[in-house]
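Please check the following for our workbook:

***
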Amino acid sequence: MTHQATAPGEEFAPTTDASEETPVWLITGSSSGLGRALAEHALRRGDRVAVTARDTAAVADLAAAYGHRALALRLDVTDPASVTAAVEASEKEFGRIDVLVNNAGYGYLAAIEEGEDTAVRALYDTNVHGVVTVLKAVLPGMRARRSGRIVNISSFGGLAAFAATGYYHATKFALEGLSESLAAEVAPLGITVTIAEPGGLRTQWAGTSMRQSPIRLADYEATAGARRASTLAVSGRQPGDPARAAAAIATAVDATDPPLRLLLGSDALAGARARQERTRKEIDANASLTRSTDLEQTS
């Protein structure tokens, strides 16, 4: 991929045919947070971006600032018709989609017993089923061209789970497995998949974007209840920079061989290593019991 950086509002003047050289991104959930940072980063370096949101007013300023390189589109991942329309509009305007970023998603706070069925299903509709809907709309074009980059935004919470965010973790664990299978399926077709796993980014994930169950059971106040409070309290004080995370994702996208998993942030790195060590110790401690289930016993 080639790039020519420009300032916001400055016309992009490619030295070669833009339809051949300038990467085209489609990013879901571009209105704020990491999605917004990714859109801004890609646009600043000269790429073309379909910036999508449930309300296009939230991304209209990007279209105004970057002219024909930014296409503001309505896209609600829980509305298949809007997904189809946005993908078709992107391909009509730019000719193709080179990089798909499935970023739309949100968190939900509740002990497992406190979770409301309707809210939990809505969470899955966005964080899991919505990703599948977008993938199915974009993959045919990538398959036809035998090229493409897919970035699914997971979380360190897709590798390790804690009290109060069990349903959110469940959606991200699902996304991890889905993405790993997808990567194996599309690799022979020239398409790569990267699972981005941020730690705490200074976005509104734990702030205005967070949803939570109104049900509070006293027996869980010391566990899920305490973590509800600590999760909300960290909003605005997270260690991760969304702009730096966006730059790291773009670097991975540009790589000849993009990583399957990309941890973002020193907190995610430390947490993933600790989780791996705990898992290794537990596996080793129970190795004999594990082997005891084989039909033919081995030492």
User: Anything to note?
Assistant: The beta strands are 24-27, 48-53, 70-74, 99-102, 108-109, 148-153, 191-198, 211-212, 261-264. Confidence is low (pLDDT under 50) at residues 4-18. The chain is about 45% helix and 15% strand.
